[in-house]
Amino acid sequence: MAMDTPLLYAIIDMGSNGIRFSITDLSQPTARILPTIFHDRVGISLYEAQFSSGNSPGTRGPIPQDVMNRVGDHFVRFQVTCGDFGVPADNIYVLATEATRTAPNSDEFRAYIKARTGWEVTLLSKEEEGRIGALGIASSASSVAGLAMDLGGGSTQFTWVIEEDGVIQTSPQGSFSFPYGAAALTRRLEQEGGTKKAERALREEIAQRFRDAYPQLGIPESLFETARRKGRLDLYLCGGGFRGWGYVLMQQSHIDPYPIPIINGFQARRADFHDTISVLDVVTDSDVKIFGVSKRRASQIPAVAVLIDAIMDALPAITHIQFCHGGVREGFLFDRLPREIRAQDPLGAATLPYAPPSADALCKLLSSTLPTSPSPIAGHTPPESFSPRLLAAITNLLYAHSRGPRETRSAAALHCTTTGILGSATSLSHAERAIIALVLCERWAGDLSPADLAYQHQLQRTLTPQEAWWCRFVGQVATLVGDVYPAGRVTRWRIQCETLWEEVVKKKERCDLLRVRVRCNADDAGATTMQESLQEWTHTVEKSGKKKNWVRQYGIRVGGTIC
User: Boundaries of each RTG2 C-terminal domain copy (predicted)?
Assistant: First the structure.
């Protein structure tokens, strides 16, 4: 048995559709992103087990002994795994939700687990389950403000959540828990014959429950003010039933194939999310294998469609939907983190282990090439997505792929946010993943094989043309920074950069030109001996401004000057 590691935590999440086993490392500097070092899932549906063939049709009965035995075997196996990793006994938590809470033999079931493992089962109340689910959503992004729902197998939780500077607010009422889980709705539709009339009646029943609950949530005016300022009201979703719906939306995206196979951070507009007909068409096509959706989950999607129709009918103010990976495990652990860690930027926490020695100085140099005022003619500015926190994360990763062979660096960087070093960081939006990957790919000159070129094109399509073009420009500046400071260490300055807008005439038309001035330190040998490579860099960055290198008709002419 390994020695205990005090910051390892083991969580068993006993859901209605399955049981998840995980071990998480809460050591710094990555505690904010709740990195999982072990994960397993057992497809035992405690909800379905209560409607097994031993009971009368449609009658809920106790969890059968054979199911309890299977659960116990998996628990004992995980207990051995915890010992292998060195998880302290006091850091192991068994959390049970709807199916265990409502099982006729819940007491017996929990006593059986205690007898097999010595572990106490924490039975979450409806309100606590909703609160922890909201905390899981809060852990899934750098900031959160909107309505929140968690769709399990047996129930749906409904509340609101705001996270800012490590402080999480949810409804003072806790969470409304409705008996409309994916498995529960599927069974109810089957019992009622699956007719259109039954669907309509169920849909109206669900919609009315949500309409009644909405004014009782006590949503603060600050949330509505944020929505008005942004011009959008977000609905944050977690839970397996909603995740399955999100994966189908990815499958039918106009970006085919969709390049980011991670549900957390995926966003959809209301109309796309509510297009239940298209989603059901994909699911009923027997020839289509949907990534991320099991057979059981696919069989529940028609019932989820009824729920989504009802939600959209009851809550017309929702404009955007954000899918989150966070759930009970993440919420329970996030709740245990100190406020100062919860307040950390998850993107910074995920990239900090790769930061170069002089990350702050290099980030300042990189940022100095982004204009702070709009261009005089077309009003061009860098997109808001190129925020200080994103540029800091990019700086942290400037040298992360330097040890690989030259011919693999661009490709490794291109894939780093999906299957590479940031693939397991679950707190990034899809736009952040695409921007970081494209910038870092360009930082290593963007030399790609045909297969990787196709993937690069798909990533670009997830962004606006403006974002995709600025990725290329920032990546080329990152190349300059990396060449001038190959060790990532700034002991004395070698170059300084500034940008300014100019008006030029091209083909008898006035247009904007972004002038990048690079000033060399005449007293530094590292700078004075780089004149030739600096001139080559100006030619490269100027090429990005040529029309043939624009992205979907968007681009800006660029000029480089070495002085």
Answer: 345-558
